[in-house]
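Internal ticket #5521
Category: modeling
Description: The requester needs a full-assembly model to guide mutagenesis choices. All entity lines are attached below as received. Residue total reported by intake: 946.
Assigned to: D.W.
Attached entities:
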Amino acid sequence: MPGSVLDPVKPGCALHPALELTGVSFAYGPSTPALSNVSLSIGKGEKVALLGSNGCGKSTLLRIMNGLATPSAGSVHVFGEKVNPAALRGAAFAHRLRRRIGFIFQNADAQLFSSTVREEIAFGPLQMNLPPSEVRQRVAETAGMLGISHLLDRAPFHLSGGEKKKVALASVLVVNPSVLLLDEPTASLDPRSQRWVVDLIVSLHRAGKTIVTATHDLDIVHEIADRVIVLDEDHTIAASGPTMDILSDLDLLLRVNLVHEHTHRHGRLIHSHPHHHSGDHDHTHDVSGGHSHE
Amino acid sequence: MHIPDSAISPATSLACGAAMLPVWTVAGRSLRANLGDRQAPLLAIGAAFCFTIMMFNVPAPGGTTVHPTGAVLLAILLGPAAAVIGMTVALVIQALFFGDGGVLALGANAFTMAFAMPLCGYAAYRAIAGRSETGSARRFTAAGAGAYIGLNAAALLTALFLGIQPALFHSSAGRPQYFPFGLSVTIPALMSAHLLIAGFAEAAVTVAALRYVAAAGIGIHSDSVAETSGREGRRHLLWVGLAALAAVAPLGLLARGEAWGEWDAAEIQRRAGFVPRGFSGNAASGWHGFQLLPDYLSDLGAVGYVFAALAGITFVALAAFLLSRLLRYGAGRGEPAIVETTPAVAHDCGGIPAWLLVDDSTDEPAAGPSRGSSSTFLDRTLESIAANARDALAAERWSRTAGLLQRVDPRVKIITTLVFIVLSAITHRAATLLVLYAIALACAVVSRIPLSLVIRRVWLAVPLFAGFVALPAALNVVTPGRTVLVLSRDPLLAVTDAGAAVAAMFTLRTGVALTFALLLTLTTPWNRLLEGLRVLRISRPFLVVAAMTYRYLTVLMTAASDLFVARRSRTIGNSGPAERRRFVGRAVGALFGKSVALTDEVHSAMLSRGWTGEPRSLESRALHRADYAWMAGTLAIAACLAGGEFLARFRP
């Protein structure tokens, strides 16, 4: 990886956690709460997964961390700086926040709004007023790193799902954020692209990035996170702890509807079986065979 | 309702474009103030939404289908300023990338469809809706009436623009240079089709879409206006009304040159038979259009005529309003709700109702006369969407072929294309047009674009409009002259030499202009074409919106296509046209819901990457020597042709 692109931003605020949320609540209307009284802290260089079933508020939490949604109660600090609409109106603060935090949206069609891949990747650096010559260089290097140089003059709607995800990642990585928020990064990707995304997340973490991934894909959690924060269906935090502890707590996962009651663990494997009402339910697994995901 | 190049003189369109400049400025400012950095995604997706619903087919009274325009709907949903800009972007993309409506005629098309239609419709909507509550019957009625009035105001203006052409632009021999029919033909023809058919379809779709949006709880512009500003809103309304009247009045004055008494009512009726757009059908069924009006108003002159037509629209809208009220009370309460027939089932099989476990797929459908016709409008809509997608893909493919025009810088290509289109619009000589056409075909050959493609795409599209106009124009009843071919002796119906010349010029002009526009589209990737438009000093925010519109067009077209395919896969019985119109309306509403959600997402994605509201992009490449050479060469040819034209015109 070219160093110029992925050098971590100067570690100015080493004392503060990268992200700190205190008593955060959010609702999309009187009858649709999305988060209630959520407090969490994510340190610099951590690799965290937000785990929860559909509609538990994972995406909302990411949006709040990025200053895209304003909580109805509670406070948000990024590298020790308080984030609120008043602060975001200040150009310098907004610029700093956007530069530090990169957000990979789940819907690649929403994320890729420019007419070509080149313009898409150049959008962030241009908005941040980098000189054109440097923008060109960064675009070329980021595209090279992610293996999408041949796509630079293509229109986003001619790309495959996997290619779109790569372009989305490139468009965020090009400004070299120190925190990456990823919303369901492997959703609707084929197995090979999923593998590619997981590997990239791991190597970005090694390069010093703070990684926060919202997902309900239990198969990838042990790779993309050292710590897991579990959101309950009542929009509160159900648990937070080391990945292996959380993944082995079947009762917890069952309670927050992340697994089905017929789910099993075999070593580090979690999986479930079709639901049968008749007959006895027993089977065995050979960890070395039959399962490709470990 | 799109006016193609060659139907009106460039001067008319230029005047309209000049009139649009302040409108665009005011709309742009108001959006910037109200929406801030949100305006780019909102307008882009709004325009893509407009573009997409213009591909929908709505079953209209009389068994035909029409395309809704959605201009008034957009004004109600997003506000009049957003509708003005959104419709303009949609028209630009239609003209530049899909060959709908002319490039030079953009000014006139924008005036009718991006200004008059949304503003007149919105004004009527606000006037009728008053302070009624969101979701009230009065609101929906107001929306329906607004859509009806907006569409007809635009149709009236289109009829005016077309109808004043023969009076203003004719050769010394009196032959019309552009559109050959006067106001006494264009107004009855266009107005009857819109007052009787398209207006009702547009109103039905608008109301159904708003019902869906209200039921889904999506916030819309007109709600916020009604809540926040009473007096402010009324002043706004006044302004809109005055603007619309002011826009129409000078056109009436322009039209004074037209001799009203030239054709009496009986003659109009006879001539009307040759006019397309449902007029002949109406005449045959005993309705004779607006033929009473010219007679009745001939003393008052053109201005009176325009006001009379507006009064006519209002009168019909009022009648429709009363009728709908009457029908509402006659039918009990509102439209019949969808009856949920949930059978009481024994939940004995894991919660799956018993009827779901029985295979009854071979049962005959419950009575229904003609099964086939029910899905025609779906097929047509899907075909429209597919055709547009095909065209976009074809353009994308040919623009990547290694050819001469593909190598020329888009900025140079835009300028030279415009020069050739202007030349083909102002020339008086068939020879010049033929030379221009030969140049266009030669360009296609050296750009490795198959001639068959260029010829087919242009000449299959041209007859749709030009054929309707050119063929009647060739006849003795429109263009007197030496009889060449007699079609019928009593009444005398024949092709005249002068008529044939007018028809040929008109058709050729349309074809040549379209060919040049097509070549530009086929040889330039759309993003580079948009980038190149900067050379015309088009504002950068507008181009950013246009680029995003084109980008999200595919997303919304896919979504719309899915809606219609899903509907077709569930089409079992037959549904009446009213139900089909409601379906289209709901599809429009659903698409709007998707558009709003997409706008939010895109805006977030832009903000997240530091969007400041100021579009920036990498500066364009420098022009090469070859670009300059190409420019010089084409301009020299154009100058020669223009010189020849000049000499021919002014030599005794």
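Resolution: model delivered.
Comment from assignee: Chain B has two domains: 10-335+537-608, 402-524+623-650.
Ticket closed.
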